[in-house]
């Protein structure tokens, strides 16, 4: 029985990839081959979006120089664990189009992230999204136009041993549980439980 099966049991039948995906912090210093790395973005490419606008974009850092540039805006806590990650992807989403405001930009970018993370799991990779970054500095360092929202930063790579993490993070290096499915659903109106 794997690590995820110990703490993650579905209430209803689903594909195991949903249970296997979690967000470890221990990365191996091992480069991800380009065809495997780009397959994650291929999966993200097929995410649904309103009017098929596909407002998401990814700024990739996989060279030493680019990863160091990203480190300038990653928060101190996240730097303690993500330094070994061989790749980062900053998810940004376009705020407007010729149709006007893209009200679903973050929702659509979230769908793309979800597809990317599941494909990473299928490929034997781990991903860890984070918002513990300096958004203004990221915008400045990466020359991101004001017409794009910065949504999150993802560390991508192969999973390392939890013992490689600082002691205070080792105990957290386990898949998390989730609340029961019916606690996330209201029926008919806010606060109304399923009937």
UniProtKB/TrEMBL annotation:
What's the domain of life for this entry? Answer: Bacteria
Which Pfam families does the UniProt record give? Nitroreductase (PF00881)
Record flagged with keyword Oxidoreductase: yes
Region Disordered, residue ranges: 168-195
A GO MF annotation of the entry reads: oxidoreductase activity
Alphabetically ordered keywords of this record: Oxidoreductase
InterPro entries linked: Nitroreductase, Nitroreductase-like
Q: Where is the composition biased (Basic and acidic residues)?
A: 168-185
Q: Where is the Nitroreductase domain?
A: 20-74, 77-158
Keyword presence, Metal-binding: no
Query: Which PANTHER family does this UniProt record tie to the protein?
Result: NAD(P)H NITROREDUCTASE YDGI-RELATED, NADH DEHYDROGENASE_NAD(P)H NITROREDUCTASE XCC3605-RELATED
Instruction: Please give the family membership noted in the entry.
Output: Belongs to the nitroreductase family.
Q: What is this protein called?
A: Nitroreductase domain-containing protein
Question: What lineage, starting at the top, does this entry show?
Answer: Bacteria, Bacillati, Bacillota, Bacilli, Bacillales
């Amino acid at each position: 029985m794997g690590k995820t099966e110990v703490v993650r049991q579905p209430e209803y039948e689903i594909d195991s990839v949903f249970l296997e995906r979690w967000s470890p912090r221990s990365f191996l210093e091992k480069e991800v081959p380009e065809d495997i790395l780009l397959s994650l973005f291929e999966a993200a490419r097929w995410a649904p979006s309103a009017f098929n606008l596909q407002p998401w974009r990814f700024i990739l850092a996989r060279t030493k120089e680019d990863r160091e540039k990203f480190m300038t805006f990653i928060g101190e806590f996240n730097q303690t664990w993500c330094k070994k990650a061989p790749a980062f992807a900053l998810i940004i989403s376009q705020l407007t189009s010729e149709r006007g405001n893209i009200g679903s930009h973050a929702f659509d970018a979230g769908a793309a992230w979800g597809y990317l993370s599941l494909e990473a799991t299928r490929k034997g990779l781990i991903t860890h999204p984070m918002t513990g970054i300096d958004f203004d500095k990221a915008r400045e360092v990466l020359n991101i136009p004001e017409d794009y929202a910065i949504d999150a930063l993802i560390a991508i790579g192969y999973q390392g041993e939890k013992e490689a993490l600082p002691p205070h993070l080792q105990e957290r290096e386990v898949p998390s549980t989730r609340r029961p499915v019916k606690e996330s659903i209201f029926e008919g109106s806010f606060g109304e439980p399923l009937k």
